[in-house]
Design goal:
This protein is an alpha+beta fold and 321 residues long. It is built from seven helices and 16 strands.
């Protein structure tokens, strides 16, 4: 995969200073400032950017806004440009390289504008910053990274529709969407299990949970939580187990149970590069194998569920297909 995250960051900085009117005329004006080529909104890829990737294309969304007197006006909704070029099939989810590109973009954008207004973990992870005249969004789209410059009024409408959709879903379906358990069928033993776990964790939705169950007493659970200092955190936890050396947990970096947290826990900040998810997965493997005495990862049951209207994390990575 080719990526130009530094170039995408410069586009976002340019957009933050641009005099947006959100009429369709903004498209050629912004293209002139950014030194892009604009083929027109009727073209399949209306924009050719100068990002250093194989397919430096952009897309324009123009719609109609209805005013109080029933008149309509054409408005620019958003400009989206690809910041990466992947050779993978469009049906493929985010790869290690996509996840790394997303984490790098997040660090650059946070350094410029602080914490994002909206964070959406998952296979279509998203970060958005509400600036005075433009909403800047970085999003994983299948196996690529997309930067969008969005009309603030259009973003508000999208958010209101999303909230209504979730409320409707909860009204009819309740709070949880459990998925079936999977027993890993991987040929590579613990190494393959750690790889599958890391990939699944990188795609875990914010209200999702991933639980690994070994026998009747042993389990590890992964879920998200927020912290006023560190923001969104991905946590792995497991309960106290009699007969297992607690000092060994502490020596390997697990936080001890206390009044606020009943279980042993490790946390990483989100978003993380793929190595961050893989390191957490290897820590979980060490607990399963060395502390719980699990010999074979195929004896573990993996459960995925979500308490939102979004789909739970897919367990396909554990099936060895």
């Amino acid at each position: 995969m080719q990526a130009d995250i530094a170039g995408a960051f410069q586009i976002a900085r340019l957009a933050a200073r641009f005099d947006w009117t959100w009429s369709p005329d903004d498209v050629p004006r912004f293209c002139d400032v950014a030194e892009w080529q604009f083929a027109g909104p009727s073209a399949r890829a209306g924009i050719s950017t100068n990002l250093e990737i194989a397919r430096p294309v952009g897309f324009v969304s123009i719609g109609r806004e209805v005013w109080d007197d029933a008149s309509q006006i054409r408005v620019l909704r958003q400009i989206s440009v690809e910041a990466t070029s992947s050779d993978l099939d469009l049906g493929t989810g985010p790869t290690h390289a996509t996840i790394d590109a997303f984490a790098l973009a997040a660090s650059l954008f946070v350094s410029e504008w602080g914490d994002p207004a909206r964070t959406v973990p998952g296979s279509s992870a998203k970060l958005a910053w509400d600036l005075p005249c433009v909403v800047i969004q970085v999003e994983i789209d299948k196996s690529d990274l997309v930067l969008s410059l969005i009309n603030p009024h259009y973003e508000q409408w999208i958010e209101s529709c999303s909230g209504e959709a979730e409320a409707d879903w909860r009204r009819y379906h309740g709070d949880e969407r459990p998925s079936d358990a999977v027993s890993p069928s991987l040929a590579g033993g613990w190494t393959s299990f750690a790889d599958a776990l890391a990939l699944t964790l990188s795609r875990l939705p914010e209200e999702g949970q991933l639980t690994l169950v070994a026998g009747s007493d042993h389990w590890l659970r992964f879920s998200f939580g927020t912290n006023s200092r560190y923001g969104l955190l991905l946590k792995c936890e497991f309960p106290r187990v009699r007969g297992i050396d607690s000092a060994e947990h502490a020596r390997t970096g697990w936080a001890k149970p206390d009044r606020r947290n009943r279980n042993w826990a490790k946390r990483i900040t989100w978003p993380a590069p793929f190595d961050g998810y893989h390191s957490l997965a290897q820590d979980a493997v060490a607990v399963l194998r060395d502390m719980f005495g699990v010999d074979d990862p195929t004896s573990i049951s993996v459960y995925s569920r979500s308490s939102s209207y979004e789909e739970p994390a897919s367990l396909e990575a554990f099936k060895g297909n």
